[in-house]
Amino acid sequence: MSAPPRVLTVAGSDSGGGAGIQADLKTMLALGVHGMSVITAVTAQNSLGVQGAWELPAQAVRAQFRSVVDDIGVQAVKTGMLASAELVETVAELLAGTDAPVVVDPVGVSKHGDPLLAPAALDSVRTKLLPVATVATPNLDEVAQLTGVRVDSERRMRTAAEAVLAYGPRWVVIKGGHLAGEAVDLLTDGAEEHWLRAARHDNRHTHGTGCTLASAIAARLAKGRSVPEAVTDAKEYVTGAIAGGFALGAGLGPVDHRWNLTTRTAAPPRA
């Protein structure tokens, strides 16, 4: 049998299994690609928040990347938590030498508000990482962190997209999940524009949505989809995963990465 498309995630480990490397690999499995990983940091994390985080040395990150890419190869790469300027610059350099499409999730804070990116690393994200991105997927807090643009309406999402695109990614998805009303995202390359809308599910268990969306985009790109097709498919997948989010521990539970593998078409919210 031939191997499925191969996708590499470069991100931090979430010990609670809801986000980070764990969410990425679950998403990739659910979408029919072979997931591989470069771990950039280890977190002590559960449904209540992040209790501790330890970044790996740049040498270890570089060695993991070269080990996978030089032997197995990749059809797409997704980046997540890159805690320091040194790690951002190391990963950006590695990606610049890779032909595969790159999805950059510029993770700044966790779902619980815990910082996951050193303030000193922001300039490296702007000048080193975003220029190598095929698609960047910031949420509204990350847009404000990177560009200073604060989005309080759909109209302002265009302004945010322009500000992010100025740093060099080919496409950007401005995730509007923090706005009131339906869940709307804007995908654009500065010329072509796609508004992606979905009903908002009344479910507080949404840990891992950003990681899941970025990984789903990478999985679809690895299968040869265009960027608009990949992002549209990923939006549908993450919407179903949010609908099925479940309670785990005493705080925010994760989305349901396996929802599309069961016989149900969508999962009702669970308490």
From TrEMBL:
Gene Ontology biological process terms in this record: thiamine biosynthetic process; thiamine diphosphate biosynthetic process
Source taxon at top rank: Bacteria
Stretches assigned to the Pyridoxamine kinase/Phosphomethylpyrimidine kinase domain: 14-256
A Pfam family it matches: Phos_pyr_kin
Catalyzed chemical reaction(s): 4-amino-5-hydroxymethyl-2-methylpyrimidine + ATP = 4-amino-2-methyl-5-(phosphooxymethyl)pyrimidine + ADP + H(+); 4-amino-2-methyl-5-(phosphooxymethyl)pyrimidine + ATP = 4-amino-2-methyl-5-(diphosphooxymethyl)pyrimidine + ADP
GO molecular function, a single term: hydroxymethylpyrimidine kinase activity
InterPro entries: HMP/HMP-P_kinase_dom, PM/HMP-P_kinase-1, Ribokinase-like
Entry GO terms, CC: cytosol
Gene name for this UniProt entry: thiD
Keywords: ATP-binding, Kinase, Nucleotide-binding, Thiamine biosynthesis, Transferase
Pathway(s) the chain acts in: Cofactor biosynthesis; thiamine diphosphate biosynthesis; 4-amino-2-methyl-5-diphosphomethylpyrimidine from 5-amino-1-(5-phospho-D-ribosyl)imidazole: step 3/3
EC number(s) from the headed UniProt entry: 2.7.1.49, 2.7.4.7
Protein name according to UniProt: Bifunctional hydroxymethylpyrimidine kinase/phosphomethylpyrimidine kinase
